[in-house]
Each structure stands twice: as structure tokens, then as C-alpha cells.
Target: Alcohol acetyltransferase
Amino acid sequence: MSFSLLYLAKKIIQEKVYSRRPTGLWTGSKVLLPTQTRLRLVPFSRLLVKAVRDRCRQESTTITALLQTIVARSIFAHIPPEFTRLACTGALSSRRWLPDFITDESMGVWVQDYEETYSRATVAPSEGFPWAEARRSRKTIQSVLKMKGKNASTSLLQFVDNFQEELCLSKVGKDRDKSFEVSNIGVLDPQTNPDLPSIKGMVFSQCASVMGNAIEVSAVTGGDGCLVLAVSWQQGVVEADLINEIVESTKQDLYSLDVA
Model:
């Protein structure tokens, strides 16, 4: 995967020269060990998913962009008001831009990330849902897709000499850079051949990110049309009560879109 010299220079400056933490950024606790993953599964019915997908189309956005916006709103609703900024990362597949010998039949992990930021003022208004923010998030994803894998952070891994020390141990005890992640691997098309096995309900989850986001939200829609969110976090980094409040607010927002 290619990258420009300007992109490389920018990352070097951010990492080595000027790495000021944004004011008002919430990222949970500092990076700590040991790791114990906590997980909560949040299912949504096929009828609700269809209604939300239709609403997203009406508002010129996508479910992934909507989920990012809703999770940001839900976090802001339950953290102290002095926190005014959230940093989100998303994941998308790089498979389509890799050499031709990587086909649909190939098994592997070819993923790159992208970044988005949310402010309390724009995401958590007192009235109405901020569809403009969901559309903005969609445009961010579209702009990354147009790059076709160029200037992806994964391309910089070739410059890491010692993964354990530089990417892991050196961060213990320091502030995190990111607040939450939304990874949506999409929809599994239902099997129409009665002679083949049919996968219906699905769950996609990830372990807690020790050095990365304080909260991980993983999404998949199974062959039954039901969406399941898997919310994971590290014990001691985020309180379980906060996660429960965020989950309830997320559910409330999604259900309110169905009846809007």
C-alpha cells in the first residue's frame, strides 16, 4: 500500500515533534495492565434494522456513519461536561485494493483504519437528531475509500523496529489517543440454496484494545436480518455502569429513529 511523502512527514511531526493532546478529549483511563476484556451483546430485530436502514437512505447516510454518531451522542450524555471532544476510529477492508492473487476465496486480515472526531456541541444538541453529523461521517468514510488504500496508517508499520516495545510497552501509563471504535463488517446475505447450510444469527466481537480505544463497538447483520452490537472494554478502563448507560442511550436513539 502506497503513501505520500507529505503524509509520512505529517505523521513523523505528530509522533516525534508536536503531539499536543486536544483539549477536552475523553479517552477513558490511561493505558494499564493486566488486560481483562468485558463484553456486552446488544441485539436489534430485523424490522428495526430495516426501518433504520430506510431512514439512513432518506437522510443520505449509512448505518456505519449513523452508529458512530449515536455512540458519540451516548458517550457525551454520560461523561462530565468538561469533556467536549471524542476521537473515533473505524475499520474498513483493504482487500479490494490488494494484488489480484487476493481473491474472495482468500482468508486473511486486510484491514485499515480511519479517524473521525465529534464535538459535544454538534453531536449532542438539545433538540432533534444531528443527521448532519451522520452525513459528515459518511463523507469521511467515502473520502478514505476514494484513496484506495493510499496513506493508510498500516503502511507505516514497516518503519516499526520493535512492535512490542514501540507499539505496546512504551504506551503503558500514558493517555490514550482515541475514545471509541465502530467496526461494522456489514450484512451476511441469506443462503438461498436449500441444499447448503444457512447461517442466520451472527455475532462479531473483539477483545478490548489495551493501547487503543477505550470502547470497542463491533457490528454485524446476520442472515436473519438482525443486527448485533458487541460492546467490549477493558476492566478498569471504563466502568461497567457507564457502558450500561451508553448502551441504553444507543438503544433509545435507534428505537426513536424507527418511530420518527
